[in-house]
């Protein structure tokens, strides 16, 4: 389904990805985790062709990502970014249906799909005609998710989708999203820097560091069989916080 | 979307409005930018009209070269001229015997232009001084000026530049004066009276001479040639409209020196409209019941308003249609942006008057050259704001549009332009307000508008007339500002307000 072979990408001379090989299993949720600047977002943007690799090949749904194929591919890939990337001049409804309108969807079909998505994401239909500036942070991310799902894509890419939300809303959305991914049976690739969140969503986790993959496997594998000292440190650091907090009152 | 629909609507509206006037066989009379020429133009026009020939007076257009070019290019059929000007300015002093009118006619005919017989009066150049000042210094003739190098000379700009003007005069008489200023003819008279000037050029039919106690110095070494008033007309006009030409012959020898001075005085001091002065003359001298087409204040205000709006509307619409695409291209190619904004900036620094003069040889006279000049001035604010507005659209929104699978064109139309709409609209507003002010200069090239009463007001020293143009122009600028505020409220997407 998704495959990167020997992909290298540099910005202004400094390497962001160094010969990365990655296979993402179809129909599962894969979470890419790592410190900031490790190349996780770049990897995501290579998949839908927002950027193209300097070397190596990215294949998505059997198609090699390139200038000629990117446009058609993007319509089969949903993409959600941290602040939602909603267009401020369009209502929530118009944001969601923009691309469908371009593809000539009939109004009735479009409306039915929006209604279905609103139910799926627990978004109040009354708020569909509000503008992004009139919505809460959680509502905005729900609209962004609906927009990404509108054309029923086979692949869903999420770049820290919950990163900018306050903890309560974040927790609520984590639970809902997990149920949603399980129900939809899509290939999901999510980027986060929070190990607990990764564990919550992931069928498989990809831990990255300085443009290379340190380890790919299940959460259990990462915890119990870290392949490098870095993986061990990373896991310990993130677990340590929680553990020490839980233990200390006792 | 609303924005583009509104733009399209206004474009088609203005295109309809600016259709060329129907090409009826109208006789077009031109006249120069001074009162006597305007009166003579009116006399000819009304004479034709009173005999059922449709004629239009394209009045107060500019100086000699301007009228001559307009005649050669067929923009006008005839205009009043002076033999001395023909010899010195138009034929470049190439004739052997400057007094031989037959030779002048032949030289003109070679260029496809015919000359009428003299109309009867002679309006030659002279140098004038205030009577009291001349008496005090004991100056009666031009050669007397040699002994007074300290005198301040001020000449009309045309006289400064003409072949038979100041330079030739200075050589001919060997005048020592160095301090010579170029200024408006009417201002020069005021300078003489106030004492800030000692000597200026004047015309021997000027109405001011009597009323302001100005004395013409004797041309004792016969420098200035004869300046018999005549009509110049195109040879093809004589063929096309022999009836009109025959009619105009009735004016030959019919206007005496005193009549002309009196007519000038009526227009200048009694504030009588030139059309009325001309009609009175035709009735008195030729027994013709001419009907001056006098416009009421309301009617002339309406005419100037429509002319002005048309100028502003056409130039602004064309600028919007050019500058927005240009701004879009600039936003996507940085190098082109620098070049385009640089060029537009340079155009902006060209003085409006100079730009209009550049336009005349290319586009003739009337609304077109004025509209093109205004168009050029409108480009910079719109291009710059379109460019800046598009540059300000956040990168993450552009990426979101791309990630949805929008084509580049759809992204521009649905995302980038709506987000830049406020900046673009502000640019158009700036251009519109600048345009309303600058369009008043259009009257200099015969485009009409609010500049027409302003120009006439300056010529006749009539503040009321100047205000008749200046006040509505200012009001129009305010109105346009208000309209744009409303448009902004309707066109800017709700989510951005």
What does this structure look like?
The complex is a heterodimer of chains A (250) and B (497). Chain A has 250 residues and is of the alpha/beta class. Chain A is 42% helix and 24% strand. A 6-stranded mixed beta sheet of chain A has the order 6-7-8-3-9-10, sandwiched between helices. Chain A has a 4-stranded antiparallel beta sheet with strand order 2-1-4-5, covered by helices on one side. In chain A, helix 3 (92-102) crosses helix 4 (107-120) and helix 3 (92-102) packs parallel to helix 5 (137-149). Chain A is globular. By secondary structure, chain B is an alpha/beta fold. Chain B is 60% helix and 9% strand. Chain B has helices at residues 2-17, 35-50, 64-72, 83-90, 101-109, 131-137, 157-161, 166-173, 185-194, 208-211, 235-240, 242-248, 257-269, 274-286, 297-332, 334-349, 352-363, 367-391, 395-404, 408-438, 451-460, 463-491; strands at residues 27-30, 55-58, 78-82, 113-115, 125-130, 153-156, 180-183, 199-203, 214-216, 229-234. In chain B, the strands form 3 sheets. In chain B, strands 7-6-8-5-9 form a 5-stranded mixed beta sheet. A 3-stranded antiparallel beta sheet of chain B has the order 3-10-4. Chain B has a two-stranded parallel sheet with strand order 1-2. In chain B, helix 15 packs antiparallel against helix 16, helix 20 packs antiparallel against helix 22 and helix 21 (451-460) packs antiparallel against helix 22 (463-491). Chain B is elongated and about 90 Å long. Chain B starts with a helix and ends in a 6-residue tail after the last helix. The interface between A and B is medium-sized, with 24 and 20 residues.
Which terms summarize this structure?
heterodimer, A: 250 residues, alpha/beta, Rossmann fold, 2 domains, six-stranded mixed sheet, four-stranded antiparallel sheet, B: 497 residues, D-Maltodextrin-Binding Protein, domain 2, MetI-like fold, five-stranded mixed sheet, 60% helix
